[in-house]
Amino acid sequence: MGRLLAIDYGRRRCGIAVTDSLRIVATGLATVETPRLIEFVRDYVACEQVDAVIVGLPRDVHGRDSDSMRYITPGINRLRKELPQLKIEFYDERFTSVIAHRSMIDSGMKKMQRRDKAVVDTMAAAIILNDYLQSRRYAEENP
User: Against a cut of 0.85, is the pTM above it?
Assistant: First the structure.
């Protein structure tokens, strides 16, 4: 079984998270500048078995795609073109940045560390992927 990789796609940088090989838990992996995303993913899948990429789908409070999709869609389409063997799936990312900030506060992280947007992006990617894993487990347990 291969790992799952998550992307919290941003205009300037992307947070990346990955599961363990058993897909039990997701952890933050890195933050990369958006123009380097395809190169990063290509290098990572060359070294590790990855079965799918989960991309955070930004939605507004009413469940509609947010304005961010106008730059996310072309970026993910380029990733699909460059790595056609990878399954790429969108997953709702509503409130992950807020949850990431709250987790940072709850863990006792200092204010200066919480201002580091790269840390927030990586943590948001891990939250997206852990939520994705939980939703799949729930679906399997409650068909």
Answer: yes
